[in-house]
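Quick question, first post here. What does this chain look like in 3D?
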Amino acid sequence: MPDLTRQDVIKILAATEHARLSGVDLSGLDLHGLNFSGADLIRANLSGANLSNAYLRGASLEFANLQGTVFAGANLKEVNLKGASLRGADLTQANMTDTNLYQADLQEARVEGVVGFAR
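> Answer (accepted):
Ran it through. Tokens below.
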């Protein structure tokens, strides 16, 4: 069960420039279109969440659980995904320019039309 609701997340993002959501459970939440620019989501659980068309530029998702997360059309430019699990994630049409994927698990991830992505 997620620690926060979509409305809670919206309030946190609105209250600060670089939201601190490290380690929180946001699994399964509909977070499409939200602005997580520069957010600290280190070790957060976003498995099964919908982050389609979200803006995450410069966010840190190191070692985050992103299994089955939908990032379709999201801006992941300059995002730190070091050691993150993206198994089965949908990255279709996402912008991943200058994204750190060191030791990230991309097994079964959908990467059609991703900008700035090289396997």
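The radius of gyration is 12 Å.
The chain has one domain: 1-119.
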